Amino acid sequence: MGPFVGPRASRRPGSHVKTISIHCSQCLFKRMEGDHDNVDLKADIVGYVAAVFTTFALLPQIMRIRRLKEAKDVSLLMPSMVATGSALWIVFGFMISSAPIVAANSVALLIALATVFFAVRYRDRQAP
Asked: Could you give the CA distance from residue 32 to residue 83 in angstroms, rounded to a whole number?
């Protein structure tokens, strides 16, 4: 088997099936390594660590705003963009039936909306 994976069929006389070759670098990497479970575990760990960092990235900003009770220097654009991106990721997660994508981005959406809420609430206040 070559570096291509996926359905393969040759076009035979009278057949309406075309040759389909889908190159999958992840599958190619797995075949080269020969250790499918180890590669899957490493990829899962990297994915979960990345999800934790991106999901909770705005949390320090919320904590700062709440502690100082002022947000005059806080941009509303970034948390608004994160909220929009998270909402789109949630839709995508539902489209592909991926609970981890939906869950991580639901939390990220709540954190982004909370950041916007507190930034607006404390926008015109001065630090004590």
From this structure: 39
Distance from the Cα of residue 115 to its chain's centroid: 19
Question: Hey, what are 5's tokens?
Answer: 């994976």
Query: What is the average pLDDT score of the chain?
Result: 76
Partnered with residue 22 across adjacent β-strands are 5
- Tell me the average pLDDT across 114-122: 92
Task: Please identify which residue in the block is written with the tokens 């608004």.
Answer: 80
Summarize pLDDT for 9-49 with one digit per residue, the tens.
Answer: 444 444 443 333 334 444 444 544 555 567 778 887 888 88
Token pair, residue 30, equals 């797995």
SS3 51: helix
CA distance 90 to 106: 7
What domains lie within the chain, and their CATH numbers?
53-128 (1.20.1280.290)
Phi and psi at residue 22, to the nearest 5°: -115, 120
User: Which residues, at least 6 apart from 77, have a Cβ–Cβ distance to it below 8 Å?
Assistant: none
Residue 58 Cα distances to 69, 81, 107, 111, angstroms: 16, 12, 11, 7
